[in-house]
Amino acid sequence: MAFRKFTLAVVVLGAACASSPPPQPHQMGTISTLSAASTENYERCPHNVPREVCAVCNPALVPKFKAAGDWCPEHDVPESQCWKCHPDLNFDPLPARPVNADIVELSHAGEDVPSLEAHAVKGKVTLFDFYAVWCGPCRTLDKYVFQLLGRRSDVVLRKLNMVSWETPLAERYLRGVESLPFVIVYGKDGKRVRTVVGLNTRALDRAITDGGGL
């Protein structure tokens, strides 16, 4: 599970699960996708980063990271490659989204979504997936759910990037929630079934079934 933490915001998909805040407060950059490996069997360089994207091994990549705001000014490396700030970085490739799957991003950067009911799809089970880009288990759940959506048309996915525990989205829906991923399941009747906390695919399957999923 990716446990509750307090960091500055990150805004695009990247790496790191439950990344701990640095020992001393400092300005942080954005964790981006630029450090994600292109394949699962990637080679790590001496800096424990995928060799193909390591900014130390490949200084020509530095301008690209800085342009994306993905730079740790204190340690002079990409934020998405800074082990000192984020001791549990994850460089695994992002799972591919299935073609024709019904996936909508409701909140891109922690902005508030006043009502989930308004986005529940009648006649289908709707999964409201609250995640963060630094959450490794969230990416694992994505892989499972994407595979599920690839073979089923009665389940839809609505993703909400909470970014950090201090955003308006997190303030509304994640008070008292201690870990990610966090999924709220709505049944085919448009009513809330239950929540699933953490990487628990069995509980998610049960909630989908209880929501009217085949």
Mean pLDDT: 85
- Distance between termini? 28 Å
Rg (CA only): 18 Å
Order of helices and strands: EHEEHEHEEEH
| Molecular shape | elongated
Question: What is CATH's topology name of the largest domain?
Answer: Glutaredoxin
Q: What's the β-strand tally?
A: 7
Describe the overall structure.
The chain is an alpha/beta fold. It has 2 domains: 9-93, no CATH class; 103-210, Glutaredoxin, CATH 3.40.30. 18% of the residues lie in helices and 16% in strands. It contains 4 helices and 7 strands. The strands form 2 sheets. It has a 5-stranded mixed beta sheet, covered by helices on one side. Strands 1-5 form a two-stranded antiparallel sheet. Strand 6 and strand 7 (192-197) form a beta hairpin. The protein is elongated, with a radius of gyration of 18 Å. The chain starts with a strand and ends with a helix. Mean pLDDT is 85; it is low at 5-26.
Show the helix and strand layout.
Layout: E1 2-3, H1 62-67, E2 103-107, E3 125-131, H2 136-151, E4 155-161, H3 168-173, E5 179-180, E6 182-186, E7 192-197, H4 201-210
Parallel strand pairs: 2-4, 3-4
Antiparallel strand pairs: 1-5, 3-6, 6-7
Short description:
By secondary structure, the chain is of the alpha/beta class.
